[in-house]
Sequence to fold (418 residues):
Amino acid sequence: MSNSAHQAMLTKYAEAIVKVGLNVRAGQRLIISLMATRGVPLQFAPLVREVAKAAYGVGAKYVEVIWGDEEMLRLRAQYAPKDSFDEYPTYMVDAIMQMINNGDALLSISGADPDLLGGLDPEVVGMMQKKQLTAASSVGEKVTTNAINWCVVAAAGEAWAKKVFPKLSPEKAQAELWRAIFETTRIDQPDPIAAWQKHIDAMKARAQILQARQFDALHYKAEGTDFTLGLPNGHRWISAQSLAQNGVIFTANMPTEEVFTLPDRNRADGVVSATFPLSYGGTLIENFQVTFENGRITNVTAKQGEAALKKLVDTDEGSHRLGEVALVPASSPIAQRGHLFYNTLFDENASCHLAIGRAYRFTLTGGEELNDEEFSAAGGNVSLNHVDFMIGSPKMDIDGIRKDGKREPVMRNGEWAL
Ligand code: ZN
Ligand code: ZN
Fold:
């Protein structure tokens, strides 16, 4: 793609992010950041600037960016004294919280190096991640209660592109990853905004069907998986769009192919096998199985990365339990690409998945008003983590189980059966 053609695609992408993703309102402010790498990597400046233009185009009052440098994180993990990882400047969280408390919009641009902290002392990496999660928990809470219109999108970072397409030259890999992003976010279609509207309507219809069924549990069956997961009273099936507490309807993820809801933190039993590797904290966890009893993880095994998986589960009590159950057909356009993205935003939209850790308050009717204890009592999970792992495949069958024990096929061979 020529430079000017790429620029034109970036412009269309930014317009969709602002109009469909965030749905920025006239007079709103917008803050762009990426908590995980303490700021948006400078290499994403071309996209950030297009987003700013598009935001001002719809009447945004002010656009702020928190820039970061991935390399600084790695340097710290490598060279800083071992007893120094309690340091965590709060200005970044404060800036984001100020905007959130003012009802402004929040955009996160993912696409940084997935192996940034790979090969480094796992103790140090673990300490840094926990500190980061703790420090940013106020932002996490606002996001999981949809306090404001927020959105996560991706940009084709150099290192990420090389990981996704290792056989291509760095330039070709980056171009190919941009192509994948534009394709899966419908930016390559003649009218991306109209294409999104159609997609959103179809997803909404699917969520409404599931909502009307009021299933009490789901039963998953596939090779290496025999698993029953309870759904609490008041669970809400969510698809692409949500209504934020500031009154704005927004689309939190681009791309998005999932319909998801709240699992009961105390009702998960059996074994699930992951069908995709999980990239977590710079480590690739592969061929793993998770065993549950009464909602709690009692055992994990992995052919590769087992220590990292155990560390994730041991983060806190909530990391022993589930916070999200999502259904994605095996024919999802992201699955059809046939490769891993090493990025949750894409990989979770390729397959049915579960999330270890924190549940989204908005997946429970009235959940936004509950404190942690009340949310837990209603079946919701509270944790520092929220880590999706993929369990779907073209061989998976899922039944919905109603309160009276009657079963109904929800998915057959990885496709919708309702
Ligand atoms: Zn999900
Ligand atoms: Zn998730």
